[in-house]
Amino acid sequence: MELINSIVGFIIAIGILVTFHEYGHYLVARMCDVRVLKFSVGFGKPIYSWISSKTNTQYSLCMIPLGGYVQMLESKNQDGQPNNIDENDQKYCFDKKNVYQRFAVVAAGPIFNLILAVIFFAMTFMYGISGVKPKISLENNVYEVLSVNNNEVQRWQDVRVELLNNVINEKKIILTLKDTNNNLNQFPVKYDSSILNKEGDIVSNIGLNIIYPGRDAIIGEVNTNDNNQNVQVDDRILSINGQLVDTWNDFVTIIKESPEQQINIVALRDNKVIDYDARVLEKNGNGFLGVSKKIDKTDFVFVNYNLSDSINRAITSTSDYTILTFKMIGRLVMGEANVKNLSGPLSIAQFSGRSLEMGLSYFLYLLAILSVSLGVLNLLPIPMLDGGHLVYYVYEIIFGEELPYKVQLAAQFIGIALLGFIMIIAFYNDFVRIFS
């Protein structure tokens, strides 16, 4: 089921993002009176296609959902040789438009991705999204994180973004914390400048001791009765067969390793220590007791806003993620960030499937972040990407002539090699991350 959700989520996500990206190119091209020959979502053999009687554009949905393209009328082919274009149609050719129009057509794709991110963020904030309250443990005391450098945070995702922003900008980090007595404290976070070279979550790497909800081994529901009649809701499990149980993960580990066994449980019930027996069942080769953990709803927060606030926060979030992504890429290029944190299509598929299972808000939030990533990626000054072509046009604007064709051709080969190298790293990271 998880595999199916990943495939479905990936196809939906990439389909939406690519379609909107290519529609940006298409729309501005039409506004500049460029004739569009093909509008394709995906590559390879078309699953479905039709030709517009009005514009004579062929629209296609193809089998490989890893991109798309808009083919425009041009007076020259890829080898720089003239195409057989009628004299009356020369004015509709993309390469015959002035440099500012060509710049606008190419830039429209990434810009539309950023616009789409604003839309998805706004929809998420209006619909509402839940999350775990950011709580940490310091010197055996529990604190809730209220702000990072005076920027309010309500979920762990907010904390991660603020930490990354400040680490990348090499700023001092001060957390505003609230203890269980509602007293406020200022806590400075010390970190090494090389922290981005570490693999994994910025929160853990920076040294914050996260308190996860439902960490304690407390029974929340009893789902089967024939094997565990003695187990009751709110029992705090202390040990099983003499093995100490500190967390719910400890409890789950012991149960999984004990299929078809009779176990003795020591638990705390109504402030009294008691013990009783239960029988572990077998399910898919693992032990299964038929209970679930107790979740404290106060550990979670539901965040939503009105239309105006949602739009403002969506614009701010898109701006923050865009700048953050550019800076992270810069750190990667400079060797100041860990390339193992780079993700590829397999991770995107996995994240898409999980967010689909979690609900609409999480999927919209993921689409917003992916849309920013796609927009930023295409703005990079790499030949073969939109950003590479924009560099050519900037050269033309400055020097009044096109970049020599031989230089463009050489840069194209470099771009292909560079993108191939990045994809190899991303796929390798995906395989290691998923199958390790």
Choose one word for the global shape: elongated
Q: What's the total count of β strands? A: 17
Query: What value does the average pLDDT take?
Result: 86
Order of helices and strands: HEEHEEEEHEEHEEEHEEEEEEHHHHH
Summarize the biggest pleated sheet.
Answer: 5 strands, antiparallel
Question: What would you report as the Rg, rounded to the nearest angstrom?
Answer: 27 Å
> If helices are DSSP runs of H or I spanning 4 or more residues, what is the number of helices?
10
Task: Work out the helicity level.
Answer: 40-55%
* CA-CA gap between termini: 20 Å
- Strand fraction equals 15-25%
The computed structural class is alpha+beta
Q: Poorly predicted ranges (pLDDT <50, ≥5 residues)?
A: none
Model description:
- The model has no long low-confidence stretch (mean pLDDT 86).
- This protein has helices spanning 2-31, 99-127, 156-168, 202-205, 248-256, 307-333, 345-358, 360-379, 386-399, 405-435; strands at 36-51, 58-72, 129-132, 135-138, 141-148, 151-152, 173-179, 184-189, 219-222, 236-240, 243-244, 262-269, 272-279, 281-283, 286-288, 291-293, 300-303.
- Helix 1 packs across helix 2 (99-127).
- Strands 4, 5, 6, 7 and 8 form a 5-stranded antiparallel beta sheet that branches. A 4-stranded antiparallel beta sheet has the order 11-10-12-13, covered by helices on one side. A two-stranded antiparallel ribbon has the order 1-2.
- It contains 10 helices and 17 strands.
